[in-house]
Structure prediction request, 404 residues.
Amino acid sequence: MFSFPFFVAKRYLFAKKTHNAINIVSGVSVMAIAVVTAALICVLSVMNGFEDVITKNFSRFDPQLRIKSTQGKSFLLPTATLDKIRQLSSIQNAIPTIEEVALIRYREKQMPALIKGVKPDFEQITAIDSVIVDGKFQVFDGAFERCVLGRGLANQIGIGAHFIDPIRVYSPKRKGRVNMLRPDKNFIRQTTFIAGIFCLDQQQYDMSYMLVSLDFARSLFDFEADEMTALEVQLTPSATVKTAKKELQTILGDQFEILDRYEQQADFFRIVKMEKVLTALLLFFILLIAGFNAISSLSMLILEKKEDIKTLFYLGANQSLIHRIFLYEGWLISILGAVIGTVLGLLICGLQQHFGLLKLGSGVEYVLSAYPVSVQFFDVVIIFCVVLLMGYFCAYIPAKKVRV
Prediction:
């Protein structure tokens, strides 16, 4: 059973007022709150959608877990330790990788590239096959060293997947003295042939990476047999990241850090979170402005109901009860706006998700044809609660000033 103040507040909200302007202002207040609430849900859902798309692209190249040394860039991992890691029930595969910057040259063009040495089973711990846009993934064909380049890098040096001229790779020697008379002797030179081109639609990968065999990278950068810059791990389908990290940390100790996919792209996700927070704060500020409409509506209603207030007081209503009536009245405006806005926002997101009504554009320059949408329950709950909280304070200000 509803309390008496709530019952009266509900009658005041939906009953026709003496002055039509009060009805208009109340309706505008409800719609203003509803529109901003729907906008919050839609904007945050679109941002979540873009984050999911980019995260999916990252997961095609980044392993589930990456093990790196806290003591330096490269490290030695004995075969016995590596075998112990692979024997864990949560680990499906673990392969060493090497990442270093080198100079690549094709015909007359040259530029720096991030060389990543991998084993042929690299495609088993990532979805690299799914992002090959020309040629195939191959780092050794049994006779010649092969490589796979990012599309942006390939375009920069002017090479295609089926070109037969070799790519020359240069890296400074790590050991020995510098030869001042013959500077060219200070570099290790290797030759490889292109096998394929990949595209993640992420500039940090497409413009930088060149995948080669692990043996090619070790020879190029003068690494020892068991030396690597990272150990990339794929988990079994039933394993959890948290459990696997704990097991690996027990084996490796504090000298190594174990990064999941979010930690591997920590800077990106930090920026995305910051953008999301700033966008939400901006829209919440607009919501606060919309809340002033509710204050205006409630203030006008209080002026109209002066005689009703006196009547209620003569019938035994105290000051607190009258305050609650108008507090509930103002709060109901926010609740109604929040409910309408939430339903409207979810409806728009659902239509966008299934029909792609709002297009990004057309052409090869667009990765997606329509704005992606990912509605998160936590976001909706937070938005709804904030709207109700704002509505309460906006109603409290005029309601507290009611005098008999």
